[in-house]
Amino acid sequence: MLARDLAQVALESATRQAEVNQRIKSAISNLEVYNAEIAQRSAELDLKSAELALSRRRITAPIDGSAGIVGVNVGDYITTSSEIVTIDDRTTILVDFSVPERFATAIRPGAPVKASLVAAPGQMFDGEVEAVDNRIDAASRTFKVRARIDNKGDALRAGMSFDVSMRFPGDVYPAVDPLAIQWDSEGAYVWQLAEGQSTKVRVRIIQRDPDAVLVDADLGEGDSVITEGIQRLREGASVTDITTGSQTDGRSRTKAESAS
Predict the structure, then answer these.
(1) Which residue from 173, 222, 175 is spatially nearest to 194, judged by alpha carbons?
(2) Cα-flanking dihedrals φ and ψ of residue 87, to 5°?
(3) 64 domain-assigned
């Protein structure tokens, strides 16, 4: 600031001298007039240089946000490498997390995510995927994903730990009544009712619940699976449909009896 004030005084002096020389240029040499003009221009450049140097010493935050604790005091000597204060824009929080490689084709920017604080698991925050890394880490077999979490209530801070969850569409499997599952030496199977006859369909059990069993089998939506009277069934036996129960994922559970 002192250098700028000195440059300002020097400019005022050079400007006044140039004006005087212009008024009396008939009584002085052209060289003196010229030297006064050069001195004025030089003083202008010195002032600009001093103002530029002063502006470089003015500390201006590059972003709007919340300032932390100031790490310097008035009178401290600081340089360009000195850390003065940290400023965080907390309107949204960026969260980086690792994902197993098997989800590499399932995650895309814009996909929804939910995050909860490790310190407060009951609080859930909505966000979306902002970026997906372009390679898989060879050691961990994971890749990095960056999510942007909305922080409207200003409840989040930089450096917090999060649990991040995402949902993906699962595979679709037929669901049959647990009573329909039968076993023989080759494994599990069900009896399908097709055109009035029983047909043995091999199944692979995916998930078992109290009310339904997910199976990997050659069953289409709406196919009827026999659940009662199956002890007397054989391949291709004629079957009479007694009653049709409730639907489970489009698969009918049918009570049937074999024809005598």
Answers:
(1) 222
(2) -125, 130
(3) no
Q: What is the pLDDT of residues 48-65, one digit of tens each?
A: 888 888 777 777 777 777
CATH number at residue 131: 2.40.30.170
Take residue 106 and report the two structure tokens written for it. Answer: 């399932």
| Shared-domain flag, residues 102 and 31 | no
17-21-23 Cα angle (round to 5): 120
Range of the domain at 22: 2-56
Separation CA 37–CA 39 (nearest Å): 5
What's the domain count of the chain?
3
Tokens, residue 152: 């409207």
Q: Please indicate, yes or no, if residue 80 is contained in any of the structural domains.
A: no
Which pTM value belongs to this model?
0.49
191 and 118 in one domain?
A: no
Residue 125 one-letter amino acid: F
Handedness of CA 184, 188, 194, 196 (dihedral sign): positive
Q: Of 105, 130, 165, which residue is a domain's last? A: 165
Q: What is the spatial distance between Cα 179 and Cα 225, in angstroms, rounded to a whole number?
A: 10
- Give the pLDDT confidence of 147-157 residue by residue, as tens digits: 999 888 788 88
